[in-house]
Specification:
four-stranded antiparallel sheet; 7 helices
Length: 270
């Protein structure tokens, strides 16, 4: 289903400004749902935010974790423990974003699950099990109404794109699988929402909320750095430049530059 021109104009306008608003609280309706004339299929929304998630996760994994390790930055699954001076691994960065979404209460839920989870609570449940079996065969996303939760759900393959993720999973003492390789489907990023369609306002609220969640996750990492004995310099430079970590504005600007045009291009009628 194509988004009509009026819907596209509204979406494009707000996508241009959503970046500046993403750091502010996302407005919630006083009663019920946000209004609007459109009935946009939720799969359109979930596909959009899944692509945005791929972009921010790739940026964090390659430019922060990958390059950071080369200059002495540490990343650990216990990064929030008092005696651990490290940042979050990519999957835990995503978990922090999921926490932010839950606090925002805009209806969107995010889970990174696996058929071979290091943490048992991340195992697929119900319909997710059979849907993931299809993903393993097709490497394509699955869209469905989950019979267990009654939520509109989308599962996107989580592919091992960098060696650091492969090595971490293979060497983890709790990993049920130790022969992961690059390009393996290691799990699925699962998004859910309670309604099959959304209005323009709801669409934009979700996009803004997801971007705010990414910002919150990165902000948590910067806050953790303040407790390090040997702190990298936080500013406009990246780990590729030395013992540096980009500040919140620099990191999010790089993400926005990467994804906003792609998001709008995806919405344009073909």
């Amino acid at each position: 289903m194509k988004i009509t021109l009026p819907h596209l104009l509204a979406l494009t306008l707000v996508l241009l400004i959503v970046w500046s608003a993403a750091s502010a609280p996302v407005p919630l309706p006083e009663q019920g749902r946000l209004g609007g004339s459109a009935e946009i299929p939720i799969r359109e929304v979930l596909t959009t935010i899944a692509a945005e998630n791929d972009a921010v996760r790739s940026l964090y994994t390659k430019k922060i974790v990958g390059e950071g390790k080369k200059v002495g930055l540490n990343f650990d699954e216990d990064w929030e423990e008092e005696n651990v001076q490290a940042g979050p691994l990519p999957a835990l960065f995503l978990s922090k974003a999921a926490e932010s979404l839950q606090k925002q209460q805009i209806g969107i839920e995010l889970i990174l699950g696996s058929h071979m989870p290091i943490t048992p609570t991340n195992a697929f449940k119900g319909d997710q099990v059979t849907r993931f079996e299809r993903i393993l065969k097709t490497r394509e996303p699955e869209f469905f109404t989950d019979s267990r939760t009654n939520l509109e759900t989308a599962m996107f393959p989580d592919v091992a794109g960098v060696q650091a993720c492969v090595t971490c999973h293979n060497e983890h003492p709790s990993s049920p699988k130790t022969d992961w390789a690059l390009n393996d489907v290691m799990g699925a990023t699962t998004w859910s929402y309670p309604h099959a369609t959304v209005s323009e306002a709801e669409y934009l609220q979700i996009v803004a909320g997801v971007r705010r969640a990414f910002r919150d996750a990165y902000r948590s990492y910067l806050a953790e750095i303040e407790s390090f004995e040997n702190k990298p310099e936080i500013g406009a430079q990246w780990p590729a430049d030395g013992f540096f970590v980009p500040n919140e504005e620099t990191f999010m600007a790089a993400f926005e530059k990467e994804i906003t045009i792609k998001t709008m291009n995806r919405l344009l009628p073909k």
